[in-house]
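In this supplementary section we document a worked example of the pipeline. Step one takes a protein sequence of length 290 as its only input; no multiple sequence alignment statistics are reported here. Step two produces a three-dimensional model, which step three serialises into structure tokens for compact storage. The input and output of this example are shown verbatim.
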Amino acid sequence: MEIVDNNSIKHTISVSFDGDIPGHGQDGYPSKAAERTPEGNESVNQVRNYAKYFVSQETEYETVPWDLNPDRFEDVRQALMALSSDEIEELFGDLLAQSLSHYRDEPNVDTAGISRPFDLPADKIGTEDAVLYKQEIYLDDAGDIEAVLGVLITYYVARGERTTVRHGETPDRDPDACVEVSPAPFVAPEPFRDYLVYNLRCQIRDCYVGMGLEPPEAYKVLGPGQYRFTGKYQHFDCYPKYYDKDASIPGYSHDFVPELPISDAELGGLVDPTSETSLYDQIKGALFSR
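The serialised model returned by step three reads:
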């Protein structure tokens, strides 16, 4: 197939049924990745990602890696949105507790004496909050959440060098999605669920950006998605700072509106519709108390 990238460079590319790319030709960038600029490599990778996605949409073959599949992520997002408080506690209780445990010494956050399920690794460097928590999610044939992996802890052991510690068993198949969250002071399961749902919404945005496409309107949102894309947005000039909820990017907004543990009347007293401050920033204090 032929694809023209965002720099108007034409690529001729073939995709096998298992997602491999046996042939890829273009005349706009050096043929060797090591000789390209970072932006040039991004353009080449975007074309390859888009080609795999196109084949998956036009055939019955699954040619897209699980961690770049926006359709599968949306299925998981829908399943997450449907979870009750009890189901969130059952499936993601450890992740919630691990995240909230970072705020045990914060007087404005009601942690209710929560304990930390997993100790932070001894070889971790940086501040206590310099950590990323992940949890892989598996759907059944009906599209419901069948299983979740134990909490994964990603952290730095040296400058520019990260590692991940896994807790729990790993099923013998690829996950359907993996939520990635930094410690946040959500004390109730409902807003924490919405925190995970929003992270997947940002990850879907990342999938489209990784194919060189503008995301559909529903995914033109600001905030951290996949950590690897956050790194790209921070360091490559070809990308806006999509991870930054305060970034000024035309058509994009920070649209995180979690369920609150307060009444509509109480909410009305917190929100000023004329304020330029985001809704999340206006209501976040209510999220940190029980």
